[in-house]
Design a protein that fits this description.
globular; mainly alpha; 69% helix
Length: 204
């Protein structure tokens, strides 16, 4: 057994991993802003549409803080993964997703905003699929390979529904928010397992 399994996490490492709860903060914030913003519909309008309301600055800050937390989580994952399958690619795409979300705060108009959205969502999907690969055959993480892939599939389904709803005047905002919530729940559960003592470094 690899001795690194029993290596205690430093306080910095644990703090970086805690940033994995950032998606929940992001969701709570945009839901509150959506409820307060005049003429904004959480069902119909996208998260980014909040940037064009009277509370636009608050949503831009929400995007930027969330992006920073995603980047911090990438650093925590790099320390956690150590080596092995996805040890470099998972933190890289996690970091890329965080940078893209910060880009959403800086570039509120298309096409740059749309480019940032595409990078953020596609990077998040790649992280999920790579984790599915990483978890495979790891008895300490039984069921997490399937859960990671299922989360990615659900995200793609919600994003596809978002595209149709956006063109047809349907509940596009709700579909986008469900895609975000699906990934954020996965991240929060993963983070909770880390903080409870589960490890991802190699055990062979």
């Amino acid at each position: 057994m690899n001795g690194s399994v029993n290596r205690a996490r430093s306080q910095t490492h644990r703090l970086l991993l805690t940033s994995g709860f950032g998606g929940l903060l992001f969701i709570v914030t945009y839901l509150i802003l959506g409820a307060l913003a005049p003429n904004y519909s959480s069902v119909r309008d996208t998260i980014s549409a909040l940037q064009f309301t009277t509370l636009g600055l608050a949503q831009r800050i929400n995007f930027f803080v969330f992006g920073l937390l995603l980047c911090a989580f990438a650093a925590g994952l790099r320390l956690e993964l150590d080596s092995g399958r996805g040890g470099t690619l998972i933190p890289f795409f996690q970091l890329l997703s965080g940078i893209a979300v910060m880009g959403d705060a800086l570039f509120i108009h298309d096409p740059l905003h749309l480019v940032c959205d595409l990078i953020a969502f596609n990077s998040a999907l790649l992280v999920l699929f790579l984790f599915g690969w990483r978890f495979r055959n790891d008895i300490r993480w039984e069921g997490w390979s399937r859960y990671s892939i299922l989360t990615a599939i659900l995200m793609m389904a919600f994003l596809t529904a978002f595209g149709f709803a956006n063109r047809m005047g349907g509940p596009a905002g709700a579909m986008e928010k469900l895609a975000t919530a699906t990934r954020s729940l996965w991240s929060a559960l993963l983070t909770a397992k880390f903080l409870a003592g589960s490890r991802l470094d190699l055990y062979q």
